[in-house]
Specification:
The protein has 406 residues and is α+β, with helices and mostly antiparallel strands. It is built from five helices and 23 strands. It has a six-stranded antiparallel barrel with strand order 4-13-16-15-14-17. Strands 1-2-20-19-18 form a five-stranded antiparallel beta sheet. The chain is rod-shaped, with a radius of gyration of 43 Å.
Length: 406
């Protein structure tokens, strides 16, 4: 450095110049790389924080904004089928959701049980299968009686005694008949009557030993359950067949609210469209801590404008889309009412915090998620009773697609 003082001076001056120029040149070079910088706390025209990481623009124009709303171009809205309505308040009945199951109508179904222990044999048309329609009084199967070994031995001994007594009675009757005229007529008739009695008793015991009982259908309908095979040994009172009318089924629900049974106006099934429920009443006693409620399931009438299928004369009624023992969920409408907004159930979605939200249209291409409180009105309709105003335009179709925009 002592030999070249002018070189050291020029180097120090150059370093000082670069330290001063670098903070000025860096912001000018970075925008060319596609990175924007903003002062801390800066806000855009919609109130969003510009110093926060911005939403990345997608090729289709769909954008999730930092406040949780979404930007959807008009072309994308048409492709997604987004439809909105202006929320209108109305007075609607309050509802309760209950659990239940499909049960047998005692006036349209039956259980076929074996009266005795025995061996199963097929009927004239073979053993019926589940889903097969049967007529009232039709023979479903036969039960060949299987007596107990000790009872069978006692029966055989009794038959032997009767055969011996029958032989003696027959000899006595023949002897008295040969002495006709010398013996009173009443003795001959008494011997003949005793012989006929012994023959009838022996025939009855022999028939009972090889008895085959016919199992007949108590009602007409469809075999809902068949649990027999040819040659199967069954016990007395075993349920062998269950017959049900698929057009006449009941739904049994349960509730711990005893007063609810007096406030039911209507009921529907969740996830079973086309079926309406008619309240039949409730039990007068609690069962396992709950009160049973009974409803009759019927097919809903066709909607206005829909073409009704003409019924064929003499054909069986259309079956219900339900199965015996099927667990179901019911929405019971009560007689008391509340103020709310009636909307389709598909308008409700969930946000990342698992809160129910509605999508509100705030601009031509902007939609905002609004947390709400709601209750089900029926299987396809909900009533929103908190979080929604009368001036809100709500998305009623395509809300699930808006919720998937990231």
């Amino acid at each position: 450095m002592k030999k070249f003082p002018h070189v050291w001076m020029h180097t120090a001056a150059l370093a000082s110049a670069l330290m001063v120029a670098l903070p000025v040149a860096l912001p000018l070079a970075l925008p060319s790389a596609g990175i924007a910088w903003a002062a801390p706390g800066a806000h855009g025209p919609d109130g969003e924080h510009l110093d926060a990481p911005g939403a990345a623009a997608r090729p289709d124009g769909l954008t999730r904004l930092p406040d949780g709303s979404v930007q959807v171009p008009m072309a994308s809205q048409r492709l997604m089928g987004v439809r909105t309505v202006l929320a209108q308040p109305s007075q609607v009945p309050q509802t309760s959701e209950l659990s239940g199951r499909v049960v047998l109508d005692p006036n349209a179904g039956a259980r076929v049980q074996s009266p005795v222990a025995g061996l199963i044999a097929a009927g004239p048309r073979g053993l019926p299968l589940p889903g097969q329609r049967v007529r009232q009084g039709e023979v479903l199967a036969y039960v060949q009686h299987l007596p107990d070994p000790l009872a069978a031995a006692a029966l055989q001994a009794q038959l032997a005694e009767l055969r011996a007594a029958q032989g003696l009675a027959e000899q006595r009757w023949q002897r008295l008949q040969s002495l006709e005229g010398s013996v009173p007529r009443r003795e001959i008739e008494a011997a003949q009557s005793e012989l006929h009695s012994l023959q009838a008793r022996q025939q009855a015991l022999a028939t009972g030993q090889r008895a085959r009982l016919a199992l007949r259908a108590p009602v007409g309908g469809v075999i809902a359950r068949a649990e027999v095979l040819a040659g199967q040994v069954v016990e007395g009172r075993d349920v062998l067949f269950e017959i049900v009318d698929p057009a006449r089924l009941l739904v049994e629900a349960s509730t711990a609210d005893v007063a609810l049974s007096q406030r039911i106006a209507a009921a529907t099934l969740i996830g079973v469209p086309g079926v309406r429920l008619e309240p039949l009443g409730s039990g007068a006693a609690m069962r396992d801590g709950v009160l049973p409620l009974l409803f009759r399931a019927r097919l809903s009438p066709p909607a206005a404008g829909a073409a009704a299928t003409p019924a064929t004369p003499g054909a069986a009624p259309a079956p219900l889309p339900l199965a015996l023992g099927q667990p179901v969920r019911l929405i019971v409408q009560r007689t008391d009412t509340l103020q709310g907004f009636v909307l389709p159930a598909e308008a409700i979605t969930r946000n990342p915090a698992n809160q129910p939200v509605l999508w509100i249209k705030s601009g031509t291409e902007r939609y905002i998620p609004q947390p709400v409180q709601f209750s089900a009105l029926d299987a396809s309709t909900v009533v929103v009773h908190a979080g929604l105003g009368t001036d809100n335009r709500v998305v009623v179709r395509g809300a699930a697609l808006l919720a998937q925009i990231r």
